[in-house]
Automatic annotation (TrEMBL):
PROSITE patterns (UniProt xref): HTH_ICLR, ICLR_ED
Protein name: IclR family transcriptional regulator
PANTHER family, A to Z: HELIX-TURN-HELIX TRANSCRIPTIONAL REGULATOR, ICLR FAMILY (PTHR30136), HTH-TYPE TRANSCRIPTIONAL REPRESSOR ALLR (PTHR30136:SF24)
Keywords: DNA-binding, Transcription, Transcription regulation
Species: Streptomyces albiaxialis
């Protein structure tokens, strides 16, 4: 039983810190390196983890198996099946990275990503947690939530990630009201300074947000014209997904709100 518990602790820490090496993991879980190494090898054999480089010196990351299991548990496979064709159309119209995220445990979790063809792009790993108050996807979901859920979140600490992160509850209330009115949220370097995004909430049959859809762009490439175009595109795409799921309109007056996408980091590809 202890070996199973150790393996689960290691799995949790890899998910939180990936990519991560054995020494850092051992310090984090307060276990001997030999114990951590055995757990890693067991999890690799079971298909839960993989190494980013060959040999024991490689750093460890999750495979897609935990994400797939989570989708089965929460019904996200159905959401993804509906969303991906819409995301592909959206990416084709804007040629920027498109993210799909779902609310979970006071955050939003990235479950799908379609990348732009442009050499500088936003890269976030699947399974990444994004804060509700400092990401476009998060704000989209939060603005579409019930007043009670919003107030519950606003009573908690709102961590500052960059100089532009909104950490004042009253200021965030005002922004959420604006998101509901216009149907989309924006993020201009509030989680990562080099990332901007525009997002809208996807509403399920109950009228509650089941996901958020975002267009993510390096801040250096964002213009007022592209922001306006992205806002209309992502709002329309989120509404298409919501309608296919039997839900309503994401964030327009009379519905609920749109959101704002999470930050990441820019990467230049060859």
């Amino acid at each position: 039983m202890q070996n199973v518990l150790n393996a689960l602790r290691v799995l949790d820490e890899v998910a939180a810190r990936q990519p991560v090496g054995v020494s850092d993991l051992a310090r984090a879980v307060e276990l001997p390196k030999s114990t951590v190494q055995r757990a890693l090898l067991t999890l690799r054999e079971a298909g839960w983890l993989r190494q980013t480089a060959s040999g024991t010196a490689g750093r460890w990351v999750l495979t897609t198996k935990p994400l797939l299991l989570g989708r089965h548990a929460s019904g996200e496979l159905g959401l993804r099946d509906v969303a991906v064709p819409v995301m592909e159309d959206l990416r084709g119209r804007c040629d920027e990275t498109v993210h799909l995220a779902v609310p979970e445990g006071g955050k939003v979790v990235l479950i799908e990503r379609l990348e732009t063809s442009q050499p500088v792009r936003i890269i976030l790993p699947l399974g990444k947690n994004l804060p509700l108050h400092a990401s476009a996807n998060g704000k989209a979901v939060l603005a579409a939530s019930t007043p009670e859920e919003i107030e519950r979140h606003l009573t908690e600490e709102l961590p500052r990630f960059t100089e532009t992160t909104v950490t004042d509850a009253d200021a965030l209330r005002e922004e959420l009201a604006a998101i509901r009115a216009r149907g989309y949220a924006t993020n201009d370097g509030e989680w990562r300074t080099d990332v901007s995004a525009t997002a809208s909430a996807v509403l399920g049959p109950s009228g509650h947000p089941v996901a958020s859809l975002s267009i993510n762009i390096p801040s250096s490439r964002l213009t007022s014209e592209s922001r306006a175009a992205h806002a209309e595109l992502v709002r329309e795409a989120a509404e298409r997904i919501g309608a296919a799921l039997g839900g309503g309109h994401g964030g327009r007056p009379g519905g609920t709100s749109g959101g704002r996408p999470g930050g990441g980091h820019s990467r230049r590809t060859p």
